[in-house]
Amino acid sequence: MPSWWPDASRRHSFRAGFVDVIPALIATSTWGFVTGIALVKSGLTESMATLMTLTVFAGSAQLTSLPLIESSAPLWLIFAAGMVVNIRFVIFGAALHPYFRHMRWPRRLVLGYLSSDISFVLFMARYGDSKIKGGPEQLWYFLGIIVPGWIGWNTFSLLGIFLGSFIPASWSLDFAAILALMAIIIPLVKTRPMAMCLIVAGVIAWVGQPLPLRMGLAAAVAGGVLAGVLTEKLLHTKHRRGA
């Protein structure tokens, strides 16, 4: 066995992450396919769309920037809109930092590039309450989520880019992708803070639709996180008083 090959414990952690992410791959692959179609429908050439999907790896930022690219908006505005939509990853990064801070920054940079909403949700659901942070099993579990996620997203995004012209517009694949994501997210909501986070984020996102640069999405993320944290603190306070 070569020295670089992971041992049995690490392979087991990688396999556990892969098994957990399999249901989510259906949703993310569908979303990637829809994003690939949207890229070429917006006027990008196939080579430009391929370069974008391989380097950006952020469906929400890609779909946000497309209308701005079509309207020949200034470059700074396109970057600003993408940053606003992806500001939630600052929160995700802060929460994941204790688990990977022992690694060199180039490796953390790669992990950050491969991370997604689903990887954060699955990882925190498994290790969020862990007292030991930074163990090798946590890294390999995370790799088991993000590596298949990146491969699945880009594979289906490329399929959307090169096969998008054959898909009838009447199929409404974008709505199918949303339904697939909901089918993944809703079963994960098992606590009151998580339910409150989802409700508040959903209401803010719906009310904030008219806001420019999709600021409603950023507000929904911040509001949902705040609602979840406050609900958890209220429950802890109520539990201490009742003890």
Structure, explained:
It contains 11 helices and no strands. The protein starts with 7 loop residues before the first helix and ends with a helix. It has 243 residues and is mainly α. It is globular, with a radius of gyration of 19 Å.
Q: Keywords for this structure?
A:
single chain, mainly alpha, 11 helices
Fold blueprint:
Layout (H helix, E strand, L loop, with lengths): L7 H34 L4 H11 L2 H12 L4 H11 L2 H13 L4 H10 L2 H11 L8 H28 L9 H13 L6 H16 L7 H28 L1
Helix pairs in contact: 1-3, 1-7, 1-8, 1-9, 2-8, 3-4, 7-8, 10-11
Concise summary:
It contains 11 helices and no strands. It is mainly alpha-helical.
* Terminal CA distance: 54 Å
| Main sheet specs | none
Q: Can you tell me the residue ranges where pLDDT is under 50 for at least 5 consecutive residues?
A: none
Broad shape: globular
H/E topology pattern: HHHHHHHHHHH
